Amino acid sequence: MLKSHWTAAWRMLRRNRVYTLINVLGLALGICACLVIWVIVRYEFSFDHGHPESKRIYRVISYERIMKDEPEHLVPAVLADIPEAMKREVPGVELMAPFYELQKDTAMVVTAGKQTFYPARSVVSGPEYLRIMGYSWLAGNPQTALDRPFSVVLTESKARQYFGTGALNGMIGRELVYQDSLRANVSGIVRDWDEHTDYPYTDFISSSTIDHSFLLQSLRLDPNLDNKYPALAMVLVRLAPNADPKRVEGALTELYHSRKYDKGMFPRVVMQALGEVHFTAPGYDDVTIRTSQLSTLYSLLSIAIFILVLAIINYVNLATAQSMVREKEIGIRKVMGSSRVSLILQLLMETFLLTAVAGLFAFLMVRPVLGAFHAFVPQRLEFRPFEVDNVLFLLGITIAVTLLAGLYPARILSAHSVVSSLKGPGAPRGGAKWLLRKGLIVFQFTVSLLFIIGTMVIGRQVGFMLHKDLGFRTDAIILFSTDERKDSVSKVRVLQEEIRQLPGVADVARSNMPPSGMDRGITTVRYRARSNDPIQVEMIQADEHYVPLYGIRLLAGRNFFPSDTMKEVVINESFSKLLGFRRPDEAIGKQLYDWGKNVMIVGVVADFHKYSYKEPIRPLEIVGMACTDLNVRLDTKGKSASEARSIIARVERTWKTLYPHRPFEYGFFDEELAKFYQKEQTMEWLLNIATGITLLISCIGLFGLMLFTTERRTREIGIRKVMGAGVKDILVLLGKDFVRLVLIALAIASAGGWYFAHRWLQDYAYRVSIGADVFLLAGAGLMVVTVLTVGLQSVKAAMVNPVESLRSE
What we know:
By secondary structure, the chain is of the alpha+beta class. Mean pLDDT is 83; it is low at 284-288 and 426-431.
């Protein structure tokens, strides 16, 4: 019986090639979208789940609030003395592993007198870190490898990179030099962690090295240092098998509140499951972990579901429309003895065959689609077609689509009366089926309009954020930093002046941060002429070239004079207003008490956006102080891209004269700013793709429906033409229902679209307004697409000779 159903289904689909092609194309698009998003989401949810007892592993993090009126920001670390206190006083902790990352580190290997430098992902940790993360040892003693100072454990791939292809045991005792002068001997080698992880470290330096090296100062762990910002440690813990995470976190909270910590700066400390790390936005200091956003993944899943639902709706619409054509076939099958169950199985077999073919095409499309959108896809993501999980997912979605798309049309078709089926088609009947089709078409149009409206609103907001005047120059500026621990200000100043003399360099400034970015500095000042109350403000440390290099507009006063110590400050307009001055020039010459001394306000600059448009502009001061990060503005006006690269190459050669053993790592300022809005740009891209797919699926469905409608109404069209109707009248006759449905969908989508867009825009302190033009343009766009889709088939039907339409067999 199954074989006969299969044969009948195959013949029916071959006989109705247009119907088959339309359905296969629509379903293939829907299934392909689901497959692509399944691959991405599955990849993102795979991080850090392969560690032994991973469900018992947590990281301890803080929330930071530097200014009173700002929201909390996550910091992926805690105050450095908390881990030791937690180990002693918090029950339920089986293993505790504090560690410190050495960012932008390099490892030097000396072989036959030749120095070779390699980039390194280094952390300073104890043996507990390797135990918690479950590394397998290949060489060295796991019990003692990280006990002694100046010891380092490497992953196998790093050991091979540093020392070649010899025996791993022979690499024990070899020397490496980190951060130019930190010498460490290899004491162990572990197997690489091959699964996806947010902790891709390769060099593990013993934590006992801290007390015997410059790390004590550079990690701010020296108790004699006068730190404006406290020392922080990253912490992983593994709880005991029967420990309750909520109770452990409660005990940690009690410990934190019982100590004399700065609760104003760090209001709370929490434990976060290791599996959640990948979905947590990184803190200001956390630049090494690539995270994903659950909101983006949920948006992807929603888009996939909507696209698949639209494809299923297409199938249901076309199947129910075709039911009028297949009435006689169903009647004959019933007369020949087919039961209703048999007919439903037959019709479901047709749906399964269609869906399977569509699934096969979708499966073949996944890799090209991932390749086409590689810029938005995680770099390490790979699609393995014959992996068990992927095959099972395809099979599951094929069965689900078969049931969802095929069950209702099969029930409707199999319910036809034998007498009504065999006496002839008669006039087209409306009723529940036509109402259902109208409802499904309105749903399709509404979803398409919501995507169009969302795309337009997000596109406008992103365009506003990327192109609005930020209050400073952004183009043709490169940024790079020097090693503040070792480089004297005089050495950096020499580099600055040498770069300034290079052809193609317009200006060079030193600072501790650019005018906008994730870096931040906060200071507390007092304006004693009015009150002795402390005022928290943003602070940028820079030299006298900073303001002119970035083109920051002076409203009053002047720029500060050259100085390596704080003597003069330039404030922004918001700070001037906060101090009570109605005009910027009133602030000039006034004294602020800052960093234990009185400093003079010498200039007021126009407000500029220090952070993203989600945050309001805050009071800020730019102070003249010694800094070691460089900002270089290139003179690229009228120059080609190759000439710009030549300028950067000259800058690099100059860098190498002073730093011959350190890589030249730079970034373009405008590219760094674009990262502020990466989430919004990704969302815009997703909606653009989703809008295109939903419109394509809707057009395919409309085309199919018009095909069946015109075929069904061929005789009616012929009679109307004989009675004097022209092509225009026929077009209106066939298209007015669809235009009416578009208008209904526009009314529904406008209300929903305005609500969601308004809610989304509330996250931005500076945002675009939503005008009626957004909804009118969206409706007009969909109307044009609908009229073109319907009109093509309508014109073809209207041009048929009435003699052909009315001719009887």
